[in-house]
Design a protein that fits this description.
CATH class of the largest domain: Alpha Beta
Oligomer: single chain
Strand order of the largest sheet: 6-9-7-8
Radius of gyration: 38 Å
Length: 425
């Protein structure tokens, strides 16, 4: 199913408004089964560019007698079927249609949408005139099309004539479109384009190179500018010219950016300096030791081979550096890490402190005899309060010294905001 949507010329405010919408429901051989066509009435006088509208093959009175935007889109929605595949020629038409449905507040059916132009361009990528409007592609192949051009109904007929003339089958739409490039194409030996690119060999050749394939349209270029920008590799026939063009391009870039390479500055490579070592507290040393031990245990266990999900969960649970005691769901005792009875247990639960395990309803193991001495030491609440108090005194004193020359009353929230913004040191 093919649709085509045209819009009127922009008004003085830069807005768009549709002029016509045409659609054709086709069968597997691209033959017309049913058609739909509607003309949209201009929104106001700013959209009445009659010279532009006459380009579509209609007169002034035909647009004035057309449908309103809402009624025309609603009629189109009723004409659609749930199993229809909407084929727009390019994405811009689909974007315009979605925009107008939102403006008119009309429900947009969530059907499958295909951009037919991408499929046609990929299908014709190795032929002459592989990119352009349906009229341009038909003219290059001698396929007759109706006139005037760019009338919605004639656009539908031009697309149908194109897909029939080139032998494009609807089964190709079930696969992703082939890649295509928006370049001029030419045959080997052309005198208009001195350079040709072979996508199969991924090499840039001169147009008279013997390595080029016969009777195949290839992307053509008039200079090395585009191939250098796309990083094409040159063939031996044009390698010297390619390097000369690359050198000139680089010299031009250096001159435009004002880069000076005449003065070379030698910088000594200094060895990275080690940070000043400080004496670590007992709790910090213990935390670092637990972290290193847990990391080594986890890496050693995972390197042994393929583990099941339960074994992997057990390893991850036992190698947590912030835990000191472990228990298994369904058992009443909790253990230390080096306890032999913890081997083979699953669904492990960890606790950082002795009292946490006791409060959870577990009893200490009689074999490993866990005690509060193995608790993971965290910063106490009193220590945290002392640190916060020191920070609070610091920024509040800094705020008082900042405005001591004035009689301004300083609030706590204002001081905190200044400290967060870095205005206080």
């Amino acid at each position: 199913m093919t649709h085509y949507l045209n819009r009127a010329k922009n008004n003085r405010h830069g807005s768009h408004w549709p002029t016509q919408l045409a659609a054709s429901r086709v069968d597997a051989a691209w033959n017309t089964v049913d058609t739909f066509s509607v003309l949209f009435r201009p929104k106001d006088a700013s959209f009445q560019d009659w010279n532009h509208m006459a380009f579509f093959g209609w007169n002034r009175q035909a647009f004035l007698d057309g449908e309103a935007l809402y009624s025309g889109l609603v009629a189109f929605q009723k004409w659609l079927r749930p199993d229809d595949i909407i084929c727009w020629w390019h994405q811009e038409a689909n974007d315009l249609y979605n925009m107008f449905t939102k403006i008119a507040q009309v429900r947009n059916p969530a059907g499958k949408v295909i951009f037919l132009g991408d499929y046609i361009y990929g299908f014709l990528s190795s032929q002459k005139a592989s990119v352009g409007s349906p009229y341009k592609l038909c003219a290059a192949r001698g396929i007759p099309v109706p006139e005037p051009a760019h009338c919605s109904q004639n656009d539908i007929l031009a697309i149908q004539a194109l897909v029939k003339g080139i032998g494009f089958q609807q089964s190709y739409l079930l696969q992703p479109p082939k890649k295509w490039v928006k370049d001029y194409t030419a045959l080997k030996g052309t005198t208009v384009f001195p350079l040709l690119y072979d996508p199969d060999a991924k090499l840039l050749h001169r147009s008279d190179c013997e390595l080029l394939p016969e009777d195949k349209y290839l992307p053509a270029y008039t200079s090395f500018k585009a191939p250098i920008r796309r990083k094409y590799k040159p063939c031996s026939c044009c390698r010297e010219e390619y390097l000369d063009a690359l050198w000139e391009r680089n010299q031009d870039t250096i001159e435009r950016k004002g880069i000076n390479f005449s003065r070379q500055v030698q910088t000594a490579i200094q060895a990275p300096q080690k940070q000043a070592e400080r004496n670590l507290a007992k709790g910090e040393k213990s935390a670092i030791g637990r972290f290193k031990w847990a990391k080594e245990e986890r890496e050693t266990t995972l390197k042994k081979g393929v583990l099941t999900d339960s074994e992997r969960n057990t390893v991850m649970a036992l190698s947590q550096p912030g835990l000191a005691f472990w228990a298994s769901r369904g058992y009443r005792t909790f253990h230390r890490r080096n306890c032999p009875q913890i081997t083979g247990l699953t669904q492990l639960v960890g606790f950082p402190r002795y009292q946490d395990a006791v409060h959870a309803g577990y009893c200490p193991c009689r074999h490993c005899k866990p005690s509060p001495k193995q608790n993971v030491v965290f910063l106490s609440r009193s220590q945290t309060r002392s640190v916060l108090a020191k920070q609070r005194i610091r920024w509040y004193s800094s705020a008082r010294s900042t405005v001591s020359h004035s009689n301004t009353t300083i609030g706590t929230l204002r001081c905190r905001r200044w400290w967060a913004n870095g205005e206080l040191t």
